[in-house]
Design goal:
single chain, mainly beta, Thrombin, subunit H, 4-stranded antiparallel β-sheet, 8 strands
């Protein structure tokens, strides 16, 4: 008996699972690598940049595609007014590590996430630009699964209970707490 789900192309209402890498076009360095499959319902969830999602349409499990992206077109140009440096003594201890996310609130009540990009003996720099601003990158995606989404997955926007077992990565003796966003 032939399993038709193997031949299902990506289309609206399909559950898609994939892994991907984001590669800097100029340096060829891997900026982000997602090895644990992420899942989403095509046409419902917006977890990837729209140009990437558009290129996935019609692809099959096993396909590997490369999608070049001009990040200025997706995230806008880099805005230096979103980069702040302050004396280290003015910055709480928990924000003194490169890579830490900082949720800031403006006078109008709107919030924006900033990333700690530099820490030295005297100062901390945070940046509100998307880390991909100003770069040209290639998304390299491997499609692992394509199938009809269940009613629950359609409502949820992706697979249910798909969180990785972090203890396999950090060790079962480590205490892991969720990151609040």
């Amino acid at each position: 008996m032939n399993d038709q789900s193997i031949e299902d192309p990506i289309a609206d209402g399909k559950l898609v699972e994939l892994t991907y890498r984001v590669i800097d076009s100029k340096t060829n360095s891997v900026l982000t690598q997602v090895d644990f499959p992420i899942g989403y319902v095509h046409g419902i969830s917006e977890i990837l940049a729209p140009p990437v999602t558009a290129e996935l349409e019609g692809k099959l499990p096993g396909d590997v595609i490369e999608v070049p992206i001009d990040c200025n077109a997706v995230f806008g140009p880099r805005d230096e007014s979103l980069v702040f440096t302050d004396k280290i003594e003015n910055v709480p201890e928990e924000y003194r590590e490169v890579g830490t996310s900082v949720l800031m609130e403006g006078e109008n009540g709107n919030t924006k996430t900033f990333l700690v990009t530099r820490v030295d003996e005297t100062s901390v720099t945070i940046d509100g630009n998307n880390p991909l601003c100003g770069r040209e990158v290639v998304f390299k995606l491997e499609i692992l699964t394509v199938r009809d989404a269940t009613d629950e997955e359609l409502e949820h926007g992706g697979p249910l209970g798909a969180d990785p077992d972090i203890s396999e990565i950090v060790g079962s003796d480590q205490k892991v707490k969720p990151v609040s966003g």
